[in-house]
C-alpha cells in the first residue's frame, strides 16, 4: 500500500538537485556492485515486464503462486533455501514466498516484498522510461530491487556467510484473516532477524521510518422513539441521530488534538430502522418520528500502540456520556494493522541508508512524513525489529489503472540497497 500525495513536490526537488554527482567513498567491492547493477539494467526491465504480465491480484491464488514460483527460482539461483508456503484454505489467500540463508556474518536481515496487486494485472506497457501496469511500482518493481541487489552481492561473493530471510507475501494488499495466521511466518522470521527492510514504493529521496496502524470501528446508537414534537424534552429524549452526532463531534474535537491520529467516520445510517450489510447501509423512517437506531462505521489511524490506546480510551469516554434516553456501544474490529512507530532505531537505519546514498553520489535521504504513509506489512514486525520501508522503485498511481514505475531511477535504487545490505552484513 502506498500514499503518494507528496510525490509531485518531491520529484521537483529531486529534479533540481545537482546532477553529475560522483560516487566517492566506495571500496573496491562496493564499486564492483555499482558496475554490476549498471550492466544488468536491461535484465531488470525485462524481468519487470515478465512479472507485470503475470496477473497476481490478491484473490487470483493461482496467479500469486505463479508469481511466487518465478521469484523463488531467482532466490534458489543465489543459494537461498527458497519455497512457497501455502496458507490454510480458510484464509482464502495463496501464501507466501520464503527464501533464506544462514551464516555468521553481520546483521541478520529480513527483507519484505509482496507478490500480489490490488488490481488485476497482465497489462505491461512501456513508454520510454515509464512502465505502465498493475504492480509496476507496488511492488513488483520493489521485489526486483531485492533480487537485483542480492544478485550484485552474489556476483562478488558477498552473500557468503550472511543471514538473510526474504518474505514476499501473497496478500499484502488484503491480508488473510486472522492475521495471527496470515502473518505468522513473518513474525517467526522476525524472531531470527536483527532488522527489517521493506521495498514498498520509494517516495522521492526519503525513507519510511514509520507507518500508521489502522483499526476499524462501529458505533451503534439506540434512542427512545416517539413523536418528533417531543425531541427536546427529557421525557421523550434526543433520539439516536442527535446522540450519534454528539459522539462524532466529540471524536473530532478530542482526536484532532492528538498529533499523528486521524479518525474517519466513513458511513452512517439512522432512522426508525437502520443497519449495514457489509459496506452497504440502509435506513428507513418518517420525518415526524424520532430516530431509534443509528449506526456509523469508520477507521482510526495511529502512530504507535500507546497512541492507539490513548485514542480508544478518549473515544469510549465520549460514548459513555449520553443525551437523554439514548445509549451507544463503540466496538473495534479484532483484526487491525499495527503501527510501525518512528523509533530511534528506525532513524539509525535511515542514517545508514542516507550515508550509502551520499557515498554513491545520489544525495541525502530524509524521513518521509509518518502521517502521510498508509499501512504496510512491515508494521507486523517493526516494532520489535528496527525497520525501514520505501526502498522500492519510484512510481505513481498505486492501486489505480494509471499505475507506473520510473525505470530511469531503478539502477540508483538497486545500487543503494546493494550497498546498504553489503555494509549491514560485513
Ligand atoms: Zn504494496
Quaternary organization: single chain
In total, the number of strands is 18
How many domain regions? 2
Unreliable runs, pLDDT <50, ≥5 residues? 2-21
Q: Which ligands appear in the coordinates?
A: zinc ion
- Give me the CATH architecture of the largest domain, please: 3-Layer(aba) Sandwich
Largest sheet entry: 6 strands, mixed
- The helix content is 25-40%
| Beta-strand residue fraction | 15-25%
Sequence of secondary-structure elements: HHHHEEEEEHEHHEEEHEEEEHEHEEEEH
Structural class: alpha+beta
Mean pLDDT over the residues: 93
Across the major sheet, the strand order is 1-2-6-3-7-16
Question: Which shape, going by the Cα principal axes?
Answer: elongated
Rounded to the nearest angstrom, the radius of gyration is 25 Å
Note the gap between the termini: 32 Å
CATH topology of the largest domain: Aminopeptidase
CATH superfamily of the largest domain: Zn peptidases
**So what's the CATH class of the largest domain?**
Alpha Beta
Amino acid at each position: 500500500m502506498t500514499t503518494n500525495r507528496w510525490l509531485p513536490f518531491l520529484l521537483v526537488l529531486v529534479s533540481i538537485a545537482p546532477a553529475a554527482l560522483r560516487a566517492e567513498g566506495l571500496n573496491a567491492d562496493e564499486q564492483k556492485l555499482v558496475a554490476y547493477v549498471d550492466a544488468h539494467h536491461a535484465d531488470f526491465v525485462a524481468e519487470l515486464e515478465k512479472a507485470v504480465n503475470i496477473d497476481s491480484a490478491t484473490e487470483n491464488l493461482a496467479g500469486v503462486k505463479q508469481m511466487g514460483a518465478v521469484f523463488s527460482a531467482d532466490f534458489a539461483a543465489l543459494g537461498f533455501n527458497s519455497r512457497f508456503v501455502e496458507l490454510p484454505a480458510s484464509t482464502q489467500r495463496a501464501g507466501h514466498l520464503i527464501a533464506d540463508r544462514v551464516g555468521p556474518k553481520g546483521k541478520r536481515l529480513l527483507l519484505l516484498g509482496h507478490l500480489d496487486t490490488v488490481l488485476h494485472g497482465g497489462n505491461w506497457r512501456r513508454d520510454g522510461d515509464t512502465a505502465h501496469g498493475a504492480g509496476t511500482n507496488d511492488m513488483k518493481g520493489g521485489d526486483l530491487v531485492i533480487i537485483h541487489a542480492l544478485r550484485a552481492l552474489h556476483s562478488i561473493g558477498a552473500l557468503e556467510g550472511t543471514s538473510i530471510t526474504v518474505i514476499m507475501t501473497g496478500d499484502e494488499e488484503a491480508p488473510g484473516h486472522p492475521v495471527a495466521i496470515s502473518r505468522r511466518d513473518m513474525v517467526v522470521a522476525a524472531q531470527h532477524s536483527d532488522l527489517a527492510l521493506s521495498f514498498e514504493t520509494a517516495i522521492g529521496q526519503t525513507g519510511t521510518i514509520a507507518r500508521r496502524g489502522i483499526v476499524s470501528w462501529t458505533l451503534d446508537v439506540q434512542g427512545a422513539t416517539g413523536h418528533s414534537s417531543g425531541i427536546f424534552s427529557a421525557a421523550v429524549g434526543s433520539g439516536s441521530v442527535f446522540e450519534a452526532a454528539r459522539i462524532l463531534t466529540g471524536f473530532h474535537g478530542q482526536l484532532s488534538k492528538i498529533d499523528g491520529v486521524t479518525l474517519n467516520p466513513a458511513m452512517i445510517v439512522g432512522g426508525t430502522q437502520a443497519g449495514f450489510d457489509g459496506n452497504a447501509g440502509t435506513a428507513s423512517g418518517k420525518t415526524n418520528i424520532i430516530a431509534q437506531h443509528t449506526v456509523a462505521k469508520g477507521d482510526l489511524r495511529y502512530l504507535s500502540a500507546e497512541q492507539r490506546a490513548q485514542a480508544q480510551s478518549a473515544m469510549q469516554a465520549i460514548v459513555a456520556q449520553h443525551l437523554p434516553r439514548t445509549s451507544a456501544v463503540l466496538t473495534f474490529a479484532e483484526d487491525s494493522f499495527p503501527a510501525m512507530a518512528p523509533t530511534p532505531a528506525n532513524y539509525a537505519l535511515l542514517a545508514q541508508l542516507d550515508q550509502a546514498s551520499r557515498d554513491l553520489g545520489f544525495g541525502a535521504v530524509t524521513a518521509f512524513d509518518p502521517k502521510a504513509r498508509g499501512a504496510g506489512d512491515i508494521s507486523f514486525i517493526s516494532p520489535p525489529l528496527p525497520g525501514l520501508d520505501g526502498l522500492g522503485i519510484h512510481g505513481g498511481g498505486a492501486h489505480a489503472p494509471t499505475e507506473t514505475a520510473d525505470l530511469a531511477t531503478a539502477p540508483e535504487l538497486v545500487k543503494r540497497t546493494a550497498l546498504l545490505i553489503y555494509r549491514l552484513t560485513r
